[in-house]
Specification:
Helix content: under 10%
Largest sheet: 6 strands, mixed
Structural class: mainly beta
Number of helices: 3
Shape: elongated
């Protein structure tokens, strides 16, 4: 099967940032999982010829800052790639998306945590919907730290200090096509739309998990495109992999009309809702086993003998390869010294996250 076709992913969003990703299709045998399209010229164009240029951010991502598009106009996406080819989507109307009424979770008999959304349009004019979401979760270092090595000395870490490395946050996005329709109903109401799910043993929900859901209105053509694409990708696994059947969208190569282009450009406002799931909110909670510290054996920095303390302190902590995290527990006597361990065991950022709490994330 021929490959290297342009794939266009992302809606044009009114009232929020527009993020478009350009890539090329690859064969199932290709070791390259994603082949991004760089240095393209990308713009949103309205039906009066007004252009809104997007900015390339790298890795095939092109963005347009918050822009309010008129509901009286239609819009399309214009793309020119470095090989000189020009692509355009069909003009589509700018649709207004109704609010998300509610976002909630239930737990199934096998303990899976599933999320659901409800929405409705009292004007009965939306009918076709799409959702995506971002997720953020809290995780902790193997050894929580209460002290740090700074300025040649060990000092307590102040509460909520930016230098704390015990609590971190990781991020992910939905990777499935989530669509729904009320076209066959007398009223434009979506009830119990499944959004996503997590195994109850997932580390994402061991402390605090945040889902930020976004909802978009689609045209009927857009819904049909995503319905077909959903069928194809659920057979193979990921969006824009080689397809078992051709899924035609609304984007065309103007300079080479026989070229296949994957993607559908919709234009709408977006509405959002956030759900904060705390571990104690889950009825059937997973009780994780005790943390395995076999690869994170702590060391001790004793005060005694005092004559060599500073030399041992510098040797243990000055390189940053190991971090102090707590005092040595010795009930009934003075503190004899400190525990320290390899950085990967104390600094939660070693697991790939950030220790900076996002503004939308609930306080621990």
């Amino acid at each position: 099967m021929a490959t290297n076709f342009l794939a266009v992913d992302g809606p044009v969003v009114s009232g929020d940032s527009t993020i478009i990703t350009l890539s090329r299709t690859t064969s199932l045998s290709d070791a390259t999982q994603q082949k991004v399209e760089l240095k393209a010229i990308v713009s949103v164009e309205n039906d009066q010829g007004l252009l809104y240029p997007l900015t390339e951010k790298g890795n095939g991502v092109y963005t347009l800052g918050v822009t309010n598009f008129s509901t009286a106009r239609q819009y399309r996406l214009d793309i020119k790639t470095t090989d000189g080819k020009v692509y355009q989507s069909d003009f589509v109307p700018m649709k207004v998306t109704p609010p998300i009424d509610s976002l909630y979770f239930n737990q199934t008999s096998d303990k899976t945590v599933l999320f659901y959304a409800n929405t409705h349009d009292p004007t009965n004019s939306t009918r076709y919907y799409r959702w995506d979401y971002k997720e953020t979760w809290l995780y902790m270092a193997i050894f929580p730290s209460y002290y740090e090595y700074s300025g040649g000395a060990i000092i307590p870490i102040p509460l909520n200090s930016p230098t704390q490395v015990s609590n971190c946050y990781q991020f992910d996005s939905s990777n499935q096509i989530i669509i729904g329709s009320s076209a066959k109903l007398s009223q434009d109401i979506i009830t119990g739309q499944q959004i996503g799910g997590l195994a109850y043993t997932s580390p994402k929900i061991l402390y605090i998990y945040v889902m930020q859901l976004r909802q978009y209105a689609l045209t009927q053509d857009g819904f049909n495109y995503y319905q077909n694409l959903k069928t194809n990708t659920e057979q193979l696994g990921t969006l824009f992999d080689a397809q078992p059947s051709t899924t035609m969208g609304n984007i065309h190569c103007i300079t080479s009309p026989t070229d296949l282009v994957l993607g559908f450009v919709s234009v709408s406002t977006a509405t959002s809702k956030q759900y904060n799931l705390h571990y104690n909110d889950i009825p059937l909670r997973y009780m994780p086993p005790a943390t395995d510290t076999s690869t994170c054996v702590p060391y001790q920095l004793l005060f005694a003998p005092a004559a060599t303390y500073n030399t041992r302190l510098i040797k243990a902590l000055s390189t940053g390869d190991s971090l102090v995290y707590n005092t040595i527990y010795d009930p009934g006597s003075a503190i004899p010294g400190y525990n320290y361990a390899p950085k990967r065991c104390v600094d939660c950022r070693a697991q790939g996250g950030t220790n900076i709490r996002p503004s939308y994330f609930p306080a621990n």
